[in-house]
Specification:
Elements lengths: L14 E2 H8 L3 H10 L6 E3 L2 E4 L1 H11 L9 H4 L5
Antiparallel strand pairs: 1-3, 2-3
Length: 82
């Protein structure tokens, strides 16, 4: 039986792209692609920086953490894992 995956703590602050990259072990372009594909909530701008609220990060966690693999092809974005 597989061990449950523990969701990392979400700090009570706005999270920038670099924070999400570190959290999900992904590149900046992956974060933007996941956002465009609807896998994570659409961030907002604080000045010139893209940001996500703690609730948005929790929603992204629910969508990404615990998946067998990160989406990396157009088939994964469309939900066709073949």
């Amino acid at each position: 039986m597989q061990e449950p995956i523990e969701t990392p703590l979400v700090e009570n602050r706005f999270h920038l792209v670099a924070d999400l990259c570190h959290r999900y072990q992904a590149s900046e372009i992956s974060i933007y692609r996941w956002e465009k594909a609807g896998l994570i909530p659409e961030g907002f701008y604080i000045g010139a920086r893209r940001a996500w609220s703690p609730d948005m990060v929790r929603e992204a966690d629910a969508n990404l953490i615990g998946k067998r693999r990160r989406p990396h092809s157009h088939r994964d974005y469309l939900g066709r894992d073949q």
